[in-house]
Specification:
Layout (H helix, E strand, L loop, with lengths): L7 E5 L4 H12 L3 E6 L10 E4 L5 H15 L4 E4 L14 H26 L5 E6 L12 H20 L5 E8 L2 E2 L1 H9 L3 H11 L6 E2 H12 L10 E4 L13
Parallel strand pairs: 1-2, 1-4, 2-3, 4-5, 5-6, 6-9, 7-8
Helix pairs in contact: 1-7, 2-3, 3-4
The structure holds 1,4-dihydronicotinamide adenine dinucleotide.
Length: 250
């Protein structure tokens, strides 16, 4: 018996990285899980891949409808799909600002809006948003991305307040730099990938990257009925990056 037996979850960006790890963990613990992703073809059984672009309202509605048609209900939404952006405030043009905010912020609104009627009917409804350390700490060369995640954090708290009467809990996880295909792609583009990885590891007090599985554990906790009194909270999974100030090693 798993703690998610009988519950249905939809994970956006569930074909890769943190989303895939969360989807697998929820399924291991008894949930029926749909992965809503641009790359739904990559999703393997027992996960149910559903083609979805979170920037397209029709695509989102069709994906949520497909989940409910297949499983008969929807209890948990993990709003995890996200894209990055690099540079200072001077480096991204308006089109790039709109593109990133459309995926990272408005995407959460679209998916949540489509899911709400179903979540309201669940006795164990939960939304978990994937936020970031970039929402709470100034990180160089991440102006647009950080703004998007700051919005995710504020949206999480606002949604949590709005949906207490509906019995829907809304929380977020704030990962530090995590060892996912996204970061592998970033490292591959660096002049010296090995040095860049070491610099990212050194930025986190534990001296290593966070794993996707560690973030998934926090997502599963917040999504689970066991967290029934937690709403409007953020869980840091960041190797101590947000709150610790260590003395230099050596
Ligand atoms: P990833 O690139 O491995 O996976 C992201 C997934 O989202 C991909 O499967 C992609 O196809 C999907 N996706 C992208 N745009 C989409 C769209 N418009 N509609 C539907 N699906 C879409 O990335 P990763 O690292 O697993 O990141 C997941 C989340 O975690 C993101 O929100 C990211 O901002 C956040 N995060 C990642 C950190 C890291 O260091 N990897 C650190 C903090 C937060």
């Amino acid at each position: 018996m798993g703690d998610f037996d009988g519950l249905v979850a939809a994970v956006t960006g569930g074909a890769s990285g943190i989303g895939l790890a969360a989807a697998q963990l929820l399924a291991d613990r008894g949930a029926q899980v749909a992965c809503l992703d641009l790359n739904a073809a990559d999703v393997k059984d027992p996960l149910y891949g559903v083609a979805c672009d979170v920037t397209d309202g029709r695509s989102v509605q069709a994906a949520v409808d497909a989940v409910v048609e297949r499983f008969g209900r929807l209890d948990i939404v993990v709003n995890n799909a996200g894209i990055g952006a690099q540079g200072t405030v001077a480096d991204n043009d308006d089109a790039e600002w709109h593109r990133v905010l459309d995926v990272n912020v408005v995407g959460i609104a679209r998916v949540s809006r489509a899911a709400l009627p179903h979540l309201r009917q669940s006795g164990a409804a939960a939304i978990v948003n994937t936020c970031s350390i970039a929402a709470t700490a100034g990180i160089p060369q991440r102006a647009l991305y950080s703004a998007s995640k700051g919005a995710v954090r504020a949206l999480t708290f606002a949604m949590a307040a709005d949906h207490v009467p509906d019995g829907i809990r809304v929380n977020c996880v704030n990962p530090g730099t995590a060892d996912t295909p996204w970061v592998a792609r970033l490292l591959a583009k660096a002049d010296d990938p090995e040095a860049e990885r070491k610099a990212l590891e050194a930025r986190q007090p534990m001296g290593r990257l966070v794993s996707a599985d560690e973030v998934a554990q926090a997502i599963a906790y917040l999504a689970s009925p066991a967290a029934g009194s937690s709403t409007g909270v953020e869980v840091c999974v960041d190797g101590g990056m947000q709150n610790l100030r260590l003395r230099p090693r050596g």
